[in-house]
Amino acid sequence: MTVVARERVPLLTALLSVVSLALVFGAAGGVIPQSAVPTVPEWVLEAIPTINVLISITAIGTILTGIRAIRRGAVDRHRMLMVTSFLLFAGFLLLYLYRLIALGGSQPFPGPETIERFVYLPVLAIHILLAIVCIPLLYYVLLLAMSHSVGELYKTRHAQIGRIAATLWLISFSLGIVVYVLLHIVY
């Protein structure tokens, strides 16, 4: 299994990325019907954004701690923290997609049109763009890490791509918190 994955990291990255992005765009575009997800009480749907911002804050912490760990040579700690970060991201995404499907798509911005046009939409667009770009980068570094020994990883682009992925991931999570603040606290 590991040998097969090792030889096909780019292919597996592409396949996982396409499936993940198809789910995201399908949910955002209303292609996935509301009947595809179980019905939950309204308070659960209302709690998801707050849960997701807590997940985002936690993920920022685990990513930063993971970066610090690898800089100190603590490979096992780095691996554990980055896998945890990925699982947090997956949990965030599942909750976000569930809510999006359950509500039948995106909800309108409740604030003034000027703030929507010049603050909210640009921040949201950058957040979404970075999240989309991160997906294949994260799969790539995760698959490399899972299919190579630590010694072998130094001969791959894991560290180089990982630095880019972590930076974009941190920015995306941070902008997601700004979006939350605009949608659920300010307006």
Automatic annotation (TrEMBL):
It comes from Natronosalvus hydrolyticus. Keywords: Membrane, Transmembrane, Transmembrane helix. This is DUF420 domain-containing protein. The lineage of its organism: Archaea, Methanobacteriati, Methanobacteriota, Stenosarchaea group, Halobacteria. The keyword Transmembrane helix applies. The chain crosses the membrane at residues 43-67, 79-98, 118-143, 164-186. It holds the Pfam family DUF420.
